[in-house]
Amino acid sequence: MESKLFNLTTPLKIIVSITIITWCIIALFPLLWIVVMSIKLPVDSFASNPLKVIIGPSTKEQVGGLSFVNFIFLFLSIYLFYKLYQIRKILFDLINPILKFSLITFFILFILYITISFILFFLIQNNLSEFVNILFSNLEFLKIFSYPIIGFTPQHYLSVWVGNEFYKQFLNTMIVTGGVVTISLTVGTLAGYGLARSNSMIAFWLLIFALIFRALPHSVLVTGYLEPFINYGLYGKKIAVIVLLVAINQPFTIWMLRSFFMNIPQDLDEAAQIDGCNPFQAFWKVVMPLMWPGVITTGLFSFLLAYNDYLVAALLLDGQSQTMVPAIMQYFNMETKMTDLVESIAAAASITAPLFLLVMFFQKQIVSGLTQGAVKG
Amino acid sequence: MKKSTFLVFTMPSFIMMTLFIALPLLIVLIQSFQFNQDVLETIERENCDPFGCKTETITVPVLDENGNKIKNNIWVGFQNYKNILKFEQLSSVISNDGFEWSKIRSIDFYKALRFTLTFTFITLPFVIILGLILALCVNVLINRLKGPIIFITLLPFIITPVIGALSIKWLFIGDGILTLFLENILDKDIALFSQGWTIEILMLFYRVWHTIPFAFVIFYAGLQTVDKEKIEAAFVDGANRLQRLRFIIIPHIMPLIVFVALIHLMDSYRVFDEIVGFSASGFRISLQWMTYDFLRIDDSGTRSIGRASATSVLTMIGIIIILIPVLRRTFKEQKEKRL
Amino acid sequence: MKKILVLFAIFTSFFFLAGTNAKACELNNSVPVTSLSAGFDAWKVVTSAMEECGNFTPTLDQEYRDKLVASLESNPSQFTMAGVSASTNVSVLDAGVTRPLDDLVAKYGDSLQDNQKIVIDGKIMAIAMMTNAQHLFYREDILSDLGIDIPTTYDELLKAAKVIKDAGVVDYPLGGTFKSGWNLGEEFVNMYLGFADSFFDGNMPAVNNNDGYETLKMMKKLTEYMDPEYLTSDSTYVQQQFQQGKIALANLWASRAGAMDNAEESTVVGLVKFASAPKAKKNGKPASTLWWDGVVIAKNVTDEEAEAAFKLAMVGLDPANLGANPEAAPWLSNAFDPAPSNIGAILTAKSGAAPYPASAKMSTLHGVLGAAIGDYLTGAATAKATLEKIEADYITAATEKGLL
Fold it and tell me: Which of B17, B28, C297, C351 could form a disulfide with A224 if both were Cys (CB 3.0 to 4.6 A apart)?
């Protein structure tokens, strides 16, 4: 019955399909394009004919490219990756009872999963597909499949990560991001719980002020603390950025966590308290185990804020403590050759990879998190 | 919950926000009435370089025994605000030549304010309408497709803003492929980065592209909670699709539209990453960018802390004015919930 | 694909070998040294030689001046050493964040010439490695095909540009480093010094006059022959325009001359020639300023680090290293003959171009100029309003700093 009601007429179907297809192209195209540019030699990356950029004739000639066989293997490994991703739930469920589900196990599993997938990916891409490629090139009738069709060079990525030691900035970003997420969540969870369970006027005003603080431009906070930080030798120290980002993030964190806590019935902690727990035991032993999804979601948003920040890091960090986003902007200032420009593009493309994985894993949490914040807020 | 327990729970966060949000606000307010100067002295210095030696009389900062610059904060009243708002120039422009926008625009603050406000309010309807359309479309898709489409949709939202802006800039700058494409269609030479308004359109486009996913997700979630019986009843009554949208769905998700609008106003008012990503500062600047620019060390090795603070204060006043209607609404709502 | 395999192997082995990759450098450096400098070719030549000694991490950034003082000021300094130019050297000197190098020069600086030592009040504060100036780059083939003489004044340059444009050889005959900010300010400084001698009258700026007006006018005339995206065009962009054969004439930095003949990137190898910067007035001096670039060592580092940094710098500035790359810049070294690409800088200096008048006041004015002129060029403000704005903005900034 319901399906009948929601059945679309043909013209509507067409409109819906066109809208969605157009949007997907607009959403993906700029991102895909920087990836395509980053694996070509500069001559191809900046060719005015888009087909040349995609196929990369000069790259194919000078460096080599991906053959039909490579593509088959590429798709194969992507499929494998996807399958692994699909069974992650089953894996987690298997491990959960043994290790007890906690943020740390979750994190470790996440890292483990990524590492395994990458090793598999490289094994398949490098050894297996190369082996088959050589095999095919020696067989007369299969030769055609081993000819490169699309130019490909990893040199820009290599010179970014190895030559320019980009992993240092990556580590800096991870330290800043890790710090921001941990502190934000610790402080925010406590406050969120308190706010969700209180009807006092203080709680009310705290929330209203948090809302106003949420609206403040980030530069305002930097303006206030730039001079003191420099005077006390905090310029170039990651802790300064962590502290500022936690502060910037705090209003959002407490609003979001509060709405998650409001979803957990108050009877639960009251019952626990009747059973003899003090408020903290009730919080930690009864409420928190139900809160992990909310904590993970909020953590994701803290992660995004810290990982994507440019303004604060650009003003306060430097040299050895620099994080990735300002470093990439600096790459563009360094470029004096076309190759440098493609390297900058490769750097930009590589910092989006972790975000890509993040969405893949936590799509549900992001959606539910945004919904929670909105519907309850 | 007992008050004492509540206080213990919220104390860390409260301290954090007081120390790192409220206190800096106070510092900014104080700084905005001060000049933060180096103590200077005039000396003669002999300078020999590859082009020869010369002795100059120059002004240099005085250094303390550790070799650090000695700083001095001088109270200057509203001087920083005057330097930014430039009322004299403004009134002379208006009284002499009548109201002429191009003259007023030569004052940075008004230029930045104009751009920030246009940016904030023009992107708003696009984000809401396009986000809603997308949510409605995805909602009627078959379930298998929903996951991948939501995945793709989320990408522009989570991407690092500076990088996202760059990725769009590359498509258009110089002889970028989309510029060539446009040139082919329109059959004329196009230089999108040679004038302000084209860059502005690109920046608006980028922001809409970046924020649609957020609006989409919220609306999509809202659509899941629409009362199906109501829709059925309307269907039976002969309401067509558009009427059902107008009289049932939109009222249902109205609070969400307000929420998206609130967040979007807050976020787009602090537009900054676009200016950096599109290297647009020669043409368009925003309020937050102005603060950032004052905070950067200039060629002579100093920062304009005073003017940065004054811009910050003005920026804050601006966002509070914009948000007053929404804040009042939230205020009432939260209060009612409590009572 | 074989390459990927090899590169992947390099990638993995890198982590085990990190730190032991010293080669081709006799000095085996064990103290970690970092540097911040601009990113043009000359710096790449110097820093890559230093990198071979191990434990050296350079940061190359064309906008390095944004953070130079802040990063050297912090304690310990964010960078052991820095590359400075004539103007940034003044800001680090004023801030007192660099150390005297006399001891180190006495110990390790045998290969240095006297004109490389930047001596402030009797103390060596920096080691210059090269001079630099913006001068005329021209496409010899295009000029001779159209029978145009090498322009010596800006009026001739404009005429030449018109002929080239009318002949339809290229769409935009001129290139210019007109990017808003420092670059645009520098263009004004160059042109203004072609008309006048001084930017200041006592403490007050003296550009709001007829010379300033003429300067703006001339800059606007030039932009009419440029790619309309000139407000985003920096040195690298102009260099690429030349390399891709899109422009015929430009006043570009001497440090970019070598790139014209780089076969990997340039499609105009051997076709670009160099001459002195054009004059603004017929009997005036070239509208250009002379610069030097060199290294300084931070004060807030240990003596051990400073010593290691200086030794590394001597490897980078070794005449043998510079002599192997004569096209990268007009090096300050007599050990070898200048490359043909250095001729423009030499001619500009010989025709009497002035050194950049570096000082705190000048840096402030430079910043103001770079921010204000864009509106005039795009037609959003008149020349008169622009000059007034420059004056007013300078007074605001200088008052705030206490310079007035």
Answer: B28
Counting as contact any 3 or more CB pairs under 8 A, the partners of C are: A, B
Inter-CA distances, C254 with B51, C40, C243, C343, Å: 16, 11, 15, 9
Domains and CATH numbers, chain C: 24-132+292-338 (3.40.190.10), 133-289+346-401 (3.40.190.10)
C340 vs A75, C138, C150, C248, C276, CA distance in Å? 53, 14, 17, 19, 13
The pLDDT tens digits of the residues spanning B223-243 come to 888 888 888 888 888 888 888
Query: Taking CB atoms and an 8 Å limit, are A162 and C14 in contact across chains?
Result: yes
Confidence of residue A101 (pLDDT cuts 50, 70, 90): low
Shortest alpha-carbon distance between residue A326 and chain B (Å): 9
Alpha helix ranges (H) inside A237-337: 238-263, 266-274, 279-281, 288-308, 311-316, 324-334
Which of 271-290 (B) contact A at CB < 8 A?
A: 272-273, 276, 287-288
Rounded-to-integer distance, Cα A259 and Cα A262, Å: 5
Chain C, 277-296: which have a CB under 8 Å from a chain B CB? 290, 292
CB neighbours of residue A244 within 10 Å? 27
From B274, B255, B280, B154, select the one nearest B211 (Cα to Cα): B154
Given B77, B92, B114, which residue is the final one in a domain? B77
Residue C119 is classified by DSSP as: E
Cα nearest neighbour of C402 on chain B:
B37
Is A161–C265 a contact, with Cβ atoms under 8 angstroms apart?
no
pLDDT at A288: 86
Is there a domain that residue B92 lies in? Answer: no
Q: Do B60 and C401 touch (CB under 8 A)?
A: no
Q: What integer is the mean pLDDT of C65-79?
A: 87
Q: Is the pLDDT of residue A37 over 70?
A: yes
Domains identified in chain B, total number:
2
Tell me what ipTM this predicted complex has.
Answer: 0.88
Instruction: Please indicate whether, in this complex, the C-beta atoms of B300 and C292 are within 8 angstroms of each other.
Output: no
Q: How many CB pairs under 8 A join A and C?
A: 91
Quick check: B70 contacting C, CB < 8 Å? no
pLDDT digits (tens, 9 = 90+) for C280-291: 998 889 999 999
Question: How close does chain B come to C287, measured CA to CA in Å?
Answer: 17
Q: Cβ separation of B59 and C361 shorter than 8 Å?
A: yes
Across the B:C interface, residue pairs with CB atoms under 8 Å apart total 149
DSSP assignment of C338-367, as one string?
A: PPGGGHHHHHHHHTTPEEP--SHHHHHHHH
My answer on whether B42 and B133 are in the same domain is no
The residue that leads in pLDDT, C224 or B58, is C224
